[in-house]
Amino acid sequence: MATAIEINNLTVKFGDLVALHDVSLTVEQHEFVVLLGPSGCGKTTMLSVLANLLTPAGGEAKLHRFADGGKGKNFGYVFQQAALLPWFSVMKNITLGLAAIGTPKAEAERIAQEYINLLNLTGFEKAYPHQLSGGMQQRVGLARALAIDPEVLLMDEPFGALDAQTRVLLQEELLRIWERDRKTVLFVTHSIEEAVLLADRVVVLTARPGVVKAIVDIDVPRPRSTRDVQAAARFAELEAELWGLVRDEAVKALNV
Ligand SMILES: Nc1ncnc2c1ncn2[C@@H]1O[C@H](COP(=O)(O)OP(=O)(O)OP(=O)(O)O)[C@@H](O)[C@H]1O
Ligand SMILES: [Mg+2]
User: Does ligand 1 have an atom closer than 6 angstroms to the CB of 14?
Assistant: First the structure.
């Protein structure tokens, strides 16, 4: 398998504060990897370096290109808050990213419509973000990231701000879409249950400065559903193992 994301000895500093220290991680193409770690351990920082929004103090973080010939659509970014442009419609929020990579207008609208339908937003093409619920806004954010057909999806706690029921439904939508396309995903969450439901591998980071503490294989067959999480004994074991790893770090993070 080809390597999609390669992080080598990555160190990131903000002044004297070391956010990440000597982190190395490889994500294979079509793999779903979850980053789990306490608040402030550098998860968003890691995604920001991958998205070229931050320059590291040491090491490197690279996204490899495969099919796109270098046209700049190799990653989509889903933010914790949907970060939609409030003065643009749902359709326009999604087509903007396509326009940015040179997709002609009619084609961009056709593709946007496809993702609007896929994410059950049909009928809301002309709505503005303030007319949507939080869950719908998050789905527009996901549609926007998927519409450019990226090779890698960087997702920073995309469902963190949602109520429990909406969250479960969006996790299921994401699983359904992922089963279809098998994009490479690097997904940040604080939820152990969400990590076990979604991931092929879970990377546990220590409290700041973030260092890779453990990598846990989620050896549960796919397709998965939230009902499996509640039912399967293996899920419970994995959750207990991850909680054991994360707990100490969460305590340390509270005491800094
Ligand atoms: N732009 C910045 N300037 C200064 N310090 C920053 C900046 N961005 C992040 N930091 C610091 O770097 C550390 C890591 O921040 P980061 O946002 O990556 O954490 P995180 O793991 O995403 O946390 P959370 O789970 O709360 O989102 C924190 O201590 C934070 O205060
Ligand atoms: Mg963060």
Answer: yes
All residues with CB under 5 Å from ion ligand 2: 44
Q: Which ligand is nearest to the CA of 12?
A: 1
- Residue 254, ligand 1, Cβ within 6 A: no
172 closest CA partner among 217, 248, 225: 225
Residue nearest to atom 25 of ligand 1 (CA): 39
Please, how many CA atoms are within 13 Å of residue 130, restricted to the half-sphere of its CB?
Answer: 3
Separation of CA 42 and ligand 2 centre (Å): 7
The helices-and-strands tally (H runs, E runs) of the chain is 8, 9
CATH number of the domain within which 59 lies: 3.40.50.300
Residue 246 has pLDDT above 60, yes or no: yes
Question: Which residues form the domain of 176?
Answer: 3-255
| pLDDT over 70 percentage in the chain | 97
Ligand with smallest separation from the Cα of 19: 1
* Reported pTM: 0.93
Q: Which amino acid is at 107?
A: E
pLDDT, one tens digit per residue, over 126-145 is 999 999 998 899 999 999 99
Do residues 230 and 196 lie in contact, with contact meaning Cβ atoms separated by under 8 Å? no
Q: How many domains does the chain have?
A: 1
Split at pLDDT 50, 70, 90, the class of 80 is confident
Helix axes 90-100, 134-147, angle to 10 degrees: 20
